[in-house]
Design brief:
By secondary structure, the chain is α/β, with parallel strands linked by helices. Helices cover 34% and strands 22% of the residues.
Length: 280
Amino acid sequence: MARITAGIATSHVPAIGAAIDLGKTQEPYWAPVFAGYEFSKRWIAAHEPDVVFLAYNDHASAFSLDVVPTFAIGCAEQFAPADEGWGPRPVPTVPGHPELAAHVAQSLIQSDFDLTVINKMDVDHGLTVPLSLMFGQPQSWPCRVIPFAVNVVLYPPPSGLRCFRLGQALRQAVESFDADLDVQVWGTGGMSHQLQGPRAGLINKAFDQSFLDRLIAEPEAQARMPHIDYMREAGSEGIELVMWLIMRGALNARVKTTHRFYHVPASNTAVGHLILENQP
């Protein structure tokens, strides 16, 4: 049967993708950011999954602001990099896993999670930057990917608890799939940041570190934090962190913290990163 072996959380700052694409990763500003992922590249080379279920948010690339689903699962054979206004990133097309994606959609919808099923869409930096951080710049991605888009752009977004419960239902869905697959669940976005208004540039290091602590050790308690606290403590875009709770809900109660990294700044965002391995 399929199994979830690990969870990865990472920020998906668009400027990180630009730094990779333009060959700036060793410049003094960017080098400390990418140094935090050197271990991760070695680790994933030794723990390469068959499939990554990747929770991210679309940035008005696949969905206009006219129609924004709360949860959308990509069930296509492949997903092209999106043109976000300056051309698509020079990265490989993302191979999907339509069989597992359809099974997950069936299972989650029957578990009372309302998903939008997407059979064709492009994927933006929210999905491709995490892949680049973990896998580098390959000619083709080494695993298949199921994109899972979460609305954290227009209010109301789903609650942290809803996302955590969805992760738990996702684990049941994956474990009921009749194939020998190693699956990782990734949660992306965050950490604290705000892109507009009087608090533009906000970064709250204390909140970010507390969130990482609680995500590892007390995930359900963290999941109960209301939206207003994310807004107050982590800025308007800090709500992206609820997607990390999908990842954590998909793991066992006991996890091994294989890698933890935090850095400020990257563009105007705090960068956080975790590798959590499932424990019995």
